[in-house]
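chain below, 247 aa
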Amino acid sequence: MNVAVFDSRIEMARAAAEDAARIIRQAINARRQAYLIAATGASQFEFLDALVQQDDIDWRQTTFFHLDEYVGLPATHPASFRQYLKQRIVDRIGPGAFHFINGDDPDPTAECARVGELISLQPIDVAFVGIGENGHLAFNDPPADFETQAPYILVELDDACRRQQVGEGWFATVDDVPRQAISMSVQQILKAKHMLCVVPERRKAEAVRDCLELKVSPLRPASILQQHPLTTIYLDSDSATLLSSSY
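prediction:
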């Protein structure tokens, strides 16, 4: 695991985007297709903006997989991750394919199986992820399931996760935040060849410290990234402020 700390959020995002673009180009050159996992949330704004502006990528040769989505939330809702990804990726670059999770499917278990079958058919070149305020990886809140091999699972969102969504402005109150989500499982995320984890802001500093410096534990879901051989953690000076080590 490599940790890179930058003076500003913008510098962090640009560096992560350049690294992501390099991996994407390598995959396209090797087999004429790159398979990617895209994260959402306020932490990814600058990174995704910098990524879609990278030169010399034929985005028609990319296939994206959706990391997580709320259960029961229509795609038209302002907090829907489908809307987020459509606005920030699909409408801007026109990838060859983007496999969305239909969070408002009346049978979320069947939806898990549908998208799980799709992702199981492909090798994933790179996953773009973040770390939640509670240490979650995707919507795998603590204590996370580190064992299941199912690609997508139905999860219960804990109170800290739901409060984060309100704090970021996606919902007016905690009661408005769905209690369930479909999330890519921890084991499926770890199957990506490369992992780029982008984590800005002071409010993430405690989670960053715990996930990077304490032992791997389901109570700190993103700590599992310590075991992935090709992970780079991108931090700004605010999110890195509590780290005891110098990176």
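The chain has a mean pLDDT of 96. The chain is about 30% helix and 20% strand.
thats it, cya
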